[in-house]
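Sequence, please.
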């Protein structure tokens, strides 16, 4: 496992982290038992993972609760934990600045921790990103001073959103939507490096499509039922195109993860893991880096065949 700097004052993070959305009950996927969730987290740590991403609304607080139980006793100074603000543990949304402290305190209690390494706004509306027009960032600075967080930022999807945040705030960590089919965020990578901002990549496997296990006939009954039949057909065609580019012997999921890690601006990637087998499979990707030539081919594929489609997440 390779480790990269994400947040000043925190340990370097494993290049593959653990997205903890699936740990919570009511998560929109087949629910894990608490025993299964704790075993998954502890196995990940034993295999070299030390970065964990969660949020209050993941399983209405149960993700944070289970993560806290699983990590207790491992040594806080060996872990890097990111949680979020904006989507609440009751299932609603509240981005008001006077709710930041209350949300963080709830997360810390559930996690059984005195601090989190980073607290980020959870996919906020664009109006909350401009630090010149919001007092959120002054309050986040105060939480840094108090030692309850080491850094702050936001979870974002587009270059424009990232640019606004980084040009108007002192954010030092961002979580970005980036994968083979969604590469717009890469336009902000140089700016992030210039400002010493760490990058967490979310949805690197495009909600499972870049594992290669779905096709045009796939039916989804969980949160992924958001896709129309047309969306499914489009993605199926794109997956086939990627397979032709990378070759029949290549592992699609490994290539997708390694593609994200090929950018030196990226600190860690957080694929979802719903089973021990998926965890081990995703972690094995670190031993299979992609070549610069293949990265360029996949960038060209995006520019020429994917970008204009504006496929939904």
């Amino acid at each position: 496992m390779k480790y990269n700097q994400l947040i000043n004052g925190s340990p370097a993070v494993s290049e593959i982290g653990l997205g903890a959305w699936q740990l919570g009950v009511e998560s929109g996927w087949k629910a894990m038992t608490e025993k299964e969730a704790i075993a998954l987290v502890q196995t990940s740590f034993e295999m070299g993972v030390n970065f964990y991403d969660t949020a209050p609304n993941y399983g209405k607080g149960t993700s944070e609760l289970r993560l806290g139980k699983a990590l207790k006793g491992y040594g806080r100074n060996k872990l890097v934990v990111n949680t979020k603000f904006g989507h609440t543990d009751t299932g609603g949304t509240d981005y008001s600045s006077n709710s930041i402290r209350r949300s963080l305190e709830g997360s810390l209690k559930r996690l059984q921790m005195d601090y989190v390494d980073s607290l980020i706004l959870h996919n906020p509306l664009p109006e909350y990103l401009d630090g010149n027009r919001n007092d959120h960032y002054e309050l986040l600075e105060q939480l840094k001073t108090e030692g309850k967080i080491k850094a702050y930022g936001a979870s974002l999807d587009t270059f424009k959103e990232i640019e606004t945040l980084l040009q108007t705030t002192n954010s030092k960590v961002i979580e970005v939507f980036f994968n083979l089919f969604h590469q717009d965020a890469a336009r902000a990578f140089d700016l992030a490096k210039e400002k010493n901002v760490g990058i967490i990549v979310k949805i690197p496997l495009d909600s499972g499509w870049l594992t290669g296990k779905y096709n045009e006939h796939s039916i989804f009954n969980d949160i992924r039922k958001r896709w129309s039949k047309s969306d499914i057909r489009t993605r199926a065609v794109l997956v086939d195109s990627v397979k032709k580019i990378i070759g029949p012997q290549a592992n699609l999921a490994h290539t997708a993860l390694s593609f994200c890690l090929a950018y030196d601006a990226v600190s860690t990637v957080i694929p979802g893991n719903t089973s021990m087998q998926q965890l081990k499979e995703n972690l094995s990707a670190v031993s299979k880096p992609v070549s610069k030539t293949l990265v360029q081919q996949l960038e060209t594929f995006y520019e020429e065949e994917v970008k204009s489609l504006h496929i939904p997440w």
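The longest strand covers residues 149-156.
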